[in-house]
Structures are given as C-alpha cells and as structure tokens.
Prior knowledge:
Helix content is about 45%, strand content about 30%. It is an alpha+beta fold. Helix 6 runs antiparallel to helix 7.
Amino acid sequence: MPNTFLPTLEHLATAVILLDEQSRIAYLNPAAENLFALSSKNTIGHPVQHAFTHTGQLSVAMQQAVNNNASYIEHDLMLGTITHSKLHLRCVATPLQSDNYYLLLEFHPMDRPLKLAREEQMLDQTQANRLLLRNLAHEIKNPLGGIRGAAQLLEQELDKPSLREYTQVVIQEADRLRSLMEKLLTPQGAPHFSALNIHEVLERVRSLVLAEMPNELTIIRDFDISLPYLMGDKEQMIQVVLNIVRNAAQAMKGQGTIIMRTRIARQVTLIKKRHRLAIILQIEDDGPGVPSHLRDKIFYPLVSGRPDGHGLGLTLAQDFVSQHQGTIEFESEPGYTCFTVTLPLT
C-alpha cells in the first residue's frame, strides 16, 4: 500500500491499523485512535501486544492471514485496551504487498447499537432525575423552615444554657440541609460556557481531595497536555470530577491510587450527533469496585454504596455532563473502576 493511500484512511469511519514486518504499529487512523483511546504519537513503533491486552485472538487472526496470504475475518474478537476496557469487535486482517506495511487490521465495533441505546437511556434518565430532584427539593425545604422556627421558639423558653446547645444543633442542621437543597436539588440554570483548561479543573479537584485525605491516597496525573481549551461551565466541570474522585477515594477509605487521564478523540458520535473532536476524561481507581447490585442504577438519585451517602453525586455529574452534550460511562470489577467522561469540542 503506497503512502498516497494514507490520506484516504484518515477520513474512514472504520478503525484501521497498519503493522510492519515485526508486528509493530506503523500507522493508525483517527477512527482507530478514537475507538481504542490511543494516540499515534505514543503508539507508533511499539509492538501491537504493548498497545493492547488480551491479544490472543488477535494474534491468531494475524497469523492466519500471513500463513494463508489472504484476508482472515474474526467475527467475535474480544480485545482489551491499555485502559483495561474490553471491546467486542469484528476484525479483518489482510496481508499487504508493501515495503512499509506488512499487515492491515480493520476493526468494526459490535456493540455500537448497544452504546447508542445506553446514551438514549441516559438522556431519558437524566430528565427524569431532574424532575425528581425538583420535587424532592420542594418537599424537603418547606418542613425544614418549620423545624428551624420551632427550634428557635423552643430555645427562647429554655433556661439552661446546656439545653440550648441541643436547639442550636437542630437549627444548624436545618440550615445545613436547606443549603444542601438549594445547592444540589433546586433546578439548575443553563451552564455558563467559557473557554477552560480541563487540566486546571483536574488540578483543583486533586488539591481538594488530597487535602481531605492526605495520608495514604495517591492521585496520578496522566495528561495529554496538547488538549485544546474546552467550552464549558468551569464550576459544573469541577463538580463532575470532584464527585467522581471523592466517591473513589471514599470507596477506598482514603488508601489507594487514583489515575486522572485525559486524551483527545476524533470523529466521535455522542447522542446521535457527530463531532470532529472530543475530550476523553477518565478517572480510574484500584478500589473494591462498584457492587454488582448497584451497577445498573448507579446514576439514579438516592442510590449509594455507602451507608452515609446521599446518592446525589453521580446523578448531578450525569446531569452536568448531559448539559455539555457529553456522556459519562463506567466499567468496574474488584480492583479496578474507571469512569469515562466524553465531552465534545465545539
């Protein structure tokens, strides 16, 4: 394949990887970078086994193509990426007669319809969550005012200062809950978009969480510093990342490792809309994982894996990401959880 064909591959929606004679990656098109969350800069020149995990089936397909000198199709390929996510793919391996390229690999995701269905479900769920939170805010804020007023009246009738300490607790807690309702549960206005550096958001969250849990928590940066500015609401983005990172830190009881990772993605479809570029933000931890009975409803309001959790953090994160026309997903198993936020660049 002459190099003049490479511009054509740049615009394909199909993920294509070209290998040299030593099975090193010689080229990958933007669709492959997006599908596998890989960067050409960090991947080209490395053996294919270093870029992926669970490469057994892929190695067999490559060997079959070379041995038979003909295209070989693997209809049910499971391939892991460096971010531990496993993809269900259809792979076509084709030998090439070229000095530069030895093998062409085409990858077709088998779960794309499922992804679109999940995105539609997320959108419907987010709208239902907003309505529920508004109703919940209304129902909670009204009796809180009565509780606070009754505590104030009771305090005026008490003679012993020691007893007034109890009424102060009631008043302070009522104020705290009312503030929580106003900040978290009342309807959110439209986000205030401006150009922001996503890494400034991540650094702010990193400082906040390490200040809360300074002893045995490690937060590692894995940033693509070449990312362009994102048009978004800075406060909402801080809240999104803070809610995810704080959940991870609390699940690990402040002991473990969290990785903040940023990458660029090309030719991304988010909620049925095609975007030329998007930012991928991943929060990965080595904690116990999301309990299996919570995985299908982790973004529902009032659902929490902790006895003292209010179950609003991920609900609000999903709402804010949706307002930015993005998506939030996760995968989890014991020892590994990764939340992925994809935000379009406009």
